[in-house]
Amino acid sequence: MTDKHEVPRTMGQQAGRRSWAEPWKIKMVEPLHMTDRPTRDRAMAEAGYNTFLLRSADVYIDLLTDSGTNAMSDRQWAGMMVGDEAYAGSENFYRLESAVQQYYGYKYIVPTHQGRGAENLLSKTEIKPGQYVPGNMYFTTTRLHQELSGGTFVDVIIDEAHDPTNRAPFKGNIDIGKLDALLKEHGAEKIAYICLAATVNMAGGQPVSMANAKAVHEWGQKHGIKVYMDGTRAVENAFFIQEREPGYANKSIAAILKEFCGRTDGMTMSGKKDALVNIGGWVAVNDRDVFEELRNLVVVFEGLHTYGGLAGRDMEAMAIGITESVTDDHIRARIGQVRYLGGLLEEWGIPMMEPIGGHAIFLDAKRFYPQLKQDEFPAQTLAAQLYLDSGIRSMERGIVSAGRNAKTGDHYRPKLELTRLTIPRRVYTQAHMDVVAESVKAVYEQRESVKGLKMVYEPKYLRFFQARFEPIV
Ligand code: PLI
Q: Which of 231, 257, 296, 410 has the most CB atoms at less than 10 Å from its CB?
């Protein structure tokens, strides 16, 4: 299948269907409460119209992120009880190391407290000031760490990724022509490494094909440039390869994951997503010298190399989470739930990023609110409106998340202006998804009367987390 092919639309309710179901049942519940509209009005104003600043007690269904919001299994909770809290040489570290070696296939592993800890170490180790770091669309923390190490991020994702209506199967792919152009302009010594993100978050959870990973790796080897994967959602990427790429339908998710990792020289990982835990991450590489440097740096920023900012019990839960995450029935149900929500919205004609990606539905705020200029923050406005309607918390992934160019001070103006409904793993039911879809529909029906927001407080770094807004009247 090439990028020209279209992914068929998800059919929501066709006759004669055979459904999937979650491969687990619920043992413990956490009560949820829906607040009334006056309470939500007050909470949203106090939060400066930024869903990151809401108290979670004021939220009904929390789709802010799939990061660290996973439900752990009974096996993982049991693992928490065998935490070896030794400062050095914890047994749980060795179990984590074996799990990463077995399922991701890299030789050397350094644990970190979460993904950005890993990004910090890799950026400091592998970027020299003045170098470029090409990648398949930026991610907020990843790009910031690259910049803090003196690097400049360059977007080399295929053009299709910037078009929310394009239904190509692998919209996360890297455009080799863009790598060639960068090489021609600056030379290989000016390229620190290629950052290859699996299922590209900011592009709507869109996957990278095995063929593309192979081509990028071969290109890198030809020019002496390493490829580091952001493996945060690489298991989800393996699902799309199994589903869409010729020759992979009968391979297991675990086998595809390992083959994909084999097309890279190392990875950074936020264990808070695919690895089914609430905290944790790692950086893993095959090169002994790079490992030595990472292992030395981790003691400065995270903790000793056998805990990297984590408790022993956290490492145990992550080791077990890795083994659960790579099972075919888990990932089918995980992505199946995202598709269930997306299928309803598609049927109702709600504009969103297509095709539906791995971890979230990304509403297309530009098409939702064509009356708003990008400087009036359409995606931030949509997240606020959804919360006001029903207490559902989503997240802006548009101009606010993109931040400012550190050199010019101008806003980065991404083509994509999206509001993300992110589905935590193993947390919500199909009925919750129905409630979410109906609220989105209600907000869509009221779209014409909506005005935008103005930013009244802007932090220097990663502004989307703490910026404050006021409604335009
Ligand atoms: O949140 P961290 O520091 O564990 O991981 C940072 C990180 C790196 N790469 C990618 C692709 C991410 O999605 C990511 C974190 N994502 C968050 C928090 C999210 O809400 O999507």
A: 231
**Residue nearest to ligand 1 atom 2, measured at CA:** 115
75-149+187-199+213-238+252-325 topology per CATH: Aspartate Aminotransferase; domain 2 (3.40.640)
Is the Cβ–Cβ distance between 280 and 272 less than 8 Å? yes
Mutate to test the pocket of ligand 1, among 67, 138, 282 (most ligand atoms within 8 A of CB): 67
Give the integer Cα–Cα distance in Å for 110 and 126.
15
Can you identify the CATH homologous superfamily of domain 37-66+328-471?
Aspartate Aminotransferase, domain 1 (3.90.1150.10)
Each domain of the chain, given as residue ranges in start order, spans: 37-66+328-471, 75-149+187-199+213-238+252-325
Total residues found in the chain within this entry: 473
Contacts for 311 with CB less than 8 Å, ≥ 6 apart: 83, 85
Whether residue 272 has its Cβ less than 6 Å from ligand 1: yes
Using DSSP bridges, classify how beta strands 395-397 and 418-422 pair: parallel, antiparallel or unpaired.
antiparallel
Which tens digits make up the pLDDT trace of 238-259? 999 999 999 999 999 999 999 9
Is the beta carbon of 231 within 6 A of some atom in ligand 1?
Answer: no
> To the nearest 10°, the Cα dihedral for 14, 18, 20, 25?
110
Contact 125 CB / ligand 1 (< 6 Å): no
pTM of the model: 0.94
Catalytic site includes residue 404: no
274 lines ligand 1 (CB under 6 A): no
Q: Which of the four pLDDT bands, split at 50, 70 and 90, describes residue 382?
A: very high
Residue 15 confidence (pLDDT) above 80:
no
Any catalytic annotation for residue 464? yes
The count of other CB atoms within 10 Å of the CB of residue 10 is 17
Of 247, 182, 238, 189, nearest to 213 by C-alpha is 238
How many CA atoms lie less than 13 Å away from 416 in the CB half-sphere? 28
Question: Which residues are 194's β-sheet partners?
Answer: 227
Question: What is the rounded CA–CA span in Å between residue 251 and residue 326?
Answer: 12
